[in-house]
Amino acid sequence: MPAPPSPSIIASARPRRRRWRRASLPPAAAPSRSPPTSRKRPPSPRWSSAPKSELGPVDILVNNAGIAIVRGVDDLTEEDFDRTITVNLKSAFLCTQAVLPMMRTRKWGRIVNISSGAARGAGSIGPHYNASKAAVEGMTRGYAARLVKEGITVNAVAPSLIETDMMRGQSELVSRIPMGRFGTAEEVAQAVMLLVNNPYMTGQTIAMSGGMAFN
Question: Are 42 and 100 in contact (CB under 8 A)?
């Protein structure tokens, strides 16, 4: 079955920055196997009905919500850990569960999770952040393996030092990047669209580190 004529994209983010939009994408082949009967699912996020009512069924989900609480090992609290896991990992789980019934009905879907170089490296934020992003990549592979025959691909993008609000005032970090500059949000978006447009790629993580690490 070809891709829907005008797939709808949802990009999840922290509440004050949440937004969604529609974009036209090239068609991609999808298997014709009927989806299995779904078991009882956890409650969907309260906002999940809003984009559906505005755009119709959701075909593409980008899980981009994230938080970075900088803590040393001695300063890290259980509250810091729980909040990081909730925003960075649980939000992706809830949004994915919310859109899967729509994707399964149409036998076509794209899910892209935003991870981080900290999933596989030391990072500079803290072990709670490492754990949340490593779990995102594990969850990506888990969903990909179970949805591969249903026309739904699940991948991740793992940026390292990207020029965002989080990097403001930290220009000294550029010296760690072999390419000599921060990455840009536009470059991350290009990697996301590469995964959205490729029907044969699933369960993979694209690392974006400017040459700091090679997977």
Answer: no
Cα separation, 123 vs 65, whole angstroms: 18
Q: Pairing state of beta strands 8-12 and 152-159?
A: unpaired
Distance CA(106)–CA(144), nearest Å, equals 17
Calculate mean pLDDT across residues 118-139. 93
pLDDT of residue 7: 65
User: Is 143 tagged catalytic?
Assistant: no
pLDDT tens sequence across 59-68: 999 999 999 8
The arithmetic mean of pLDDT across residues 158-183, rounded, is 74
* Residue whose pair of structure tokens reads 């999808």 in the numeric block: 30
CA 54 to chain centre: 22
Which segments of the chain does DSSP mark as H helices, in order? 49-55, 78-85, 91-106, 127-147, 185-197
Taking the C-alpha atoms of residue 161 and residue 164, their distance in angstroms, rounded to an integer, is 9
| Partners of 158 in beta bridges | 207
Give residue-wise pLDDT tens across range 65-80.
Answer: 999 899 999 999 999 9
Catalytic residue among 129, 140, 191, 206: 129
Is CATH 3.40.50.720 the right assignment for the domain spanning 8-208?
A: yes
